[in-house]
Amino acid sequence: FGLSQMQLSRCLLRGRPKLSLVVAQEEARTRGGLCLSTSYQHNSARLDWRCAKGHEWTATLGSVRNGRTWCPQCARERQSLGLGAAIDLATSRGGRCLSATYSSSKAKLRWECAEGHQWDASLHSTRSVGSWCPHCGLRRRRLGLDAADALAAANGGRCLSRHYEHANQKLRWQCAEGHEWEASLSSVKYQRSWCPWCWRLRSALSIRVAAQIAVSRGGLCLSKTLVNCKSPLTWRCAEGHTWSVALNHVKYSGSWCPQCASGRSERDVRRIFETIFPGHAFPSCRPSFLKGGRGRRLELDGYCESLALAFEYNGEQHYTACSYFHQGKGSSYASLLDRDSLKLHLCRLVGVRVVVVPFWVKDRWSFVRCYLLRWFSISVLFPIPLGV
Q1: In this structure, are residues 365 and 272 in contact, taking their beta carbons and an 8 Å threshold?
Q2: Is 356 part of any domain?
Q3: What highest taxon heads this organism's lineage (predicted)?
């Protein structure tokens, strides 16, 4: 076209401001916001921006595009919520989050467990993966292999595996008949499953037995076939609740409808609170301040507004991903933990005190009273004179 190098450079420079403003507008659009500036001078010039929430600030195009920064006010809000979620998560596991600042879910924070062990891990790994204290985990792994050996010996067999990581890890087993198979320690220990080959040889445990057990408990076994000891059957209780769990779990552990069982425990905890605080009711409810991620209100098992006090009864599904509440739903356990942490965080923001009662607590009266001592005096919790 007959242009010299200098002329070509000038043409490129003349076109640069227009091109850069287009780039700024496109960058804002991809982040759900707007670039409010109408002109672009140079790389060091600050532009006006607005995020999807309506916050406005100034920053250079280079810092937004190359530094990957965006709305500083949203960043501060995320930091506040993230640190609060970390504190609540640590509290729900009996420990503490020692970090004072939070940058992102993958940045490492300092944690401390109930035994006083300290370690560094991200909020993402602690919440989503379900990890906790590595020092306690090492001790559990040592105890786990001993437990597997003892459990196998009690069944007349052997545990052939010599490496143990966690209760859901597949181990190699051998029964007294020489059959070998793989199963997790948790399934052998808690579901009382053993050799699947011997299981197939036993005709007593059949779908007919399942039907008889269900009828004896006032319900029905809805499944028509039984594949093996690990296959879940579908059951229905007298109240019409349906759930799926293996036959040996129902037969040997004596369990039945998990919804009915959870309801009984929740009612028992509610009775404790209403006895300690006579004249105050603790109904289950969905208060307006307890909104989840999609705007739907979350539920508290028991809440007394006048005392700013609530309780949550946490069943087995709140502490193990292998619970029958999560069968076939790999993400449901992580979602449940997220909701638990969010409940505690939102309650803390409005000054509502929450007592979390785990399912494994045997003496619930003592547990609840000891928990309440951090907020109430002994005379309130123990109104009967203790004697001179």
Answers
A1: yes
A2: yes
A3: Eukaryota
